Description:
Layout: E1 4-9, H1 34-37, H2 40-45, H3 47-63, H4 68-75, E2 81-86, H5 92-96, E3 101-103, E4 106-113, E5 123-124, E6 142-146, H6 156-164, E7 168-172, E8 193-197, E9 210-213, H7 217-231
Parallel strand pairs: 1-2, 1-7, 2-3, 7-8, 8-9
Antiparallel strand pairs: 4-5, 4-6
The structure holds nicotinamide-adenine-dinucleotide.
Nicotinamide-adenine-dinucleotide (NAD) binds at residues 10-12, 14-16, 19, 21-24, 27-28, 87-90, 105, 173-175, 177-178, 198-200, 216-217.
Amino acid sequence: xxxxxxxxxxxxxxxxxxxxxxxxxxxxxxxxxxxxxxxxxxxxxxxxxxxxxxxxxxxxxxxxxxxxxxxxxxxxxxxxxxxxxxxxxxxxxxxxxxxxxxxxxxxxxxxxxxxxxxxxxxxxxxxxxxxxxxxxxxxxxxxxxxxxxxxxxxxxxxxxxxxxxxxxxxxxxxxxxxxxxxxxxxxxxxxxxxxxxxxxxxxxxxxxxxxxxxxxxxxxxxxxxxxxxxxx
Length: 232
Ligand SMILES: NC(=O)c1ccc[n+]([C@@H]2O[C@H](COP(=O)([O-])OP(=O)(O)OC[C@H]3O[C@@H](n4cnc5c(N)ncnc54)[C@H](O)[C@@H]3O)[C@@H](O)[C@H]2O)c1
């Protein structure tokens, strides 16, 4: 039977595609405050600013490409059952060919209602621009399909279910500072093999049974690939 790998990725996964992380030097947090653009209060106060911020992020994401690490993860589907859980709002895992991607914090290529039932339907955005006149079927203004700070994470329980069944669990490019997502590292079974790939992993506080690969996503996933193939 095929072994089951679950990847759990964060902003560092897409850094080598040219998309800024939030916390690294030069990251987005230095240019914008969270309150201004990534909270429900921000949307209430200035939906146009929030829409424009995410329009610019969407434009950048559309113009960039999956990197070799996204592609290698997709290639692993030839040998393993692969599930990807991502905190990223970009669609680079899908564009690299990963067939099973669960977005914890939404997908910027989609919009949802700003009315009382935001999770009832996701609307694909053609191109990069969401505008004031884009409305959901109930007549409310569409907002980006992104989970903001202070909002619940609708796919969290589904992520736990996947992680609990993993033979291999691989964490890549996340500072594990955003909750509840960061708690996911505690849900895999004790006998699963656990890896964490991040250039700063040596300073992370994570369970001791994680094998640390202190590397960028591309070189780290190549190293992981060799370890996995040798373990078969
Ligand atoms: N691409 C995106 O969609 C994107 C980009 C920025 C932020 N976000 C969102 O911001 C939140 C921030 O949390 P986070 O933990 O994902 O990001 P983070 O910015 O807090 O942490 C990024 C991590 O990536 C590591 N990193 C930097 N360069 C790397 C590389 N080349 N290869 C591998 N790792 C590298 C850093 O050491 C750091 O630990 C997430 O919820 C995510 O939704 C998404």
